[in-house]
């Protein structure tokens, strides 16, 4: 399934799409696969598979802790592709969340080829701007992969137009300025940003950075096409006594959030 199909399905059901993130390789490659499958079974519509990287610029301490553990355990890009393949086998779109450096090192064409072969739907590149994508966009287009870029409250209208024009699949709107992490409030800037972004594109707009509970998911679902949750899932895994408890915890959270995006 493509991300476009997932968003269309959710829209037909009168709700927002739930996008859930976990890094590949935490607590192990097999453990991350089990956890992600549990999230899907509990209601996650699109999965962000994090590609562990040594310099995660926009990630807060929660995700950094898990990513570092995955790297220390030896997780590498082929392992990420194995996780993507496992997600794709469930019929759920899998998009890789990756900084540009690991993709450049792997080779843009090679990564696009191998991601497509694994059944991946696309890539979110948080540190790559659309005006610096001479390598990535042609490689992604040649394999029919989504290219998802970020817009922020600080983005000018011109910047939003340029960014959304380069996007395929959906647009990722960051609800706040800053690094990832759960927050008490989503912030009014998110709704304003979604409204501004919709003036520039017909693509679905998903809001992320800070969502941690069903009430926040319901709030965002009232004005956005998708709700992105990352740190809250990772925190459930970090706080668990063992892998089984972690899997149960992320499944429970996915169920709660799934209920949130369905509220009216």
How would you describe this protein?
By secondary structure, the protein is α/β, with parallel strands linked by helices. The protein has one domain (3-261): TIM Barrel. The chain is built from 12 helices and 9 strands. It has helices spanning 3-12, 29-41, 61-72, 77-88, 100-106, 108-117, 136-142, 157-166, 189-198, 214-221, 231-239, 243-261; strands spanning 17-23, 46-50, 94-97, 122-124, 146-148, 150-151, 171-174, 205-208, 226-229. A 9-stranded parallel β-sheet has the order 5-4-3-2-1-9-8-7-6. The longest helix is centred in the C-terminal third of the chain and has 19 residues, at 243-261. Belongs to the TrpA family. It catalyses: (1S,2R)-1-C-(indol-3-yl)glycerol 3-phosphate + L-serine = D-glyceraldehyde 3-phosphate + L-tryptophan + H2O. InterPro entries: Aldolase_TIM, RibuloseP-bd_barrel, Trp_synthase_alpha_AS, Trp_synthase_suA.
Which spans have pLDDT < 50 for at least 5 consecutive residues?
177-183
**CATH superfamily, please?**
Aldolase class I
The spatial strand order of the largest sheet comes to 5-4-3-2-1-9-8-7-6
Which range does the strand content fall in?
5-15%
Active site: 48, 59
Family: Belongs to the TrpA family.
Keywords: Amino-acid biosynthesis, Aromatic amino acid biosynthesis, Lyase, Tryptophan biosynthesis
Pathway: Amino-acid biosynthesis; L-tryptophan biosynthesis; L-tryptophan from chorismate: step 5/5
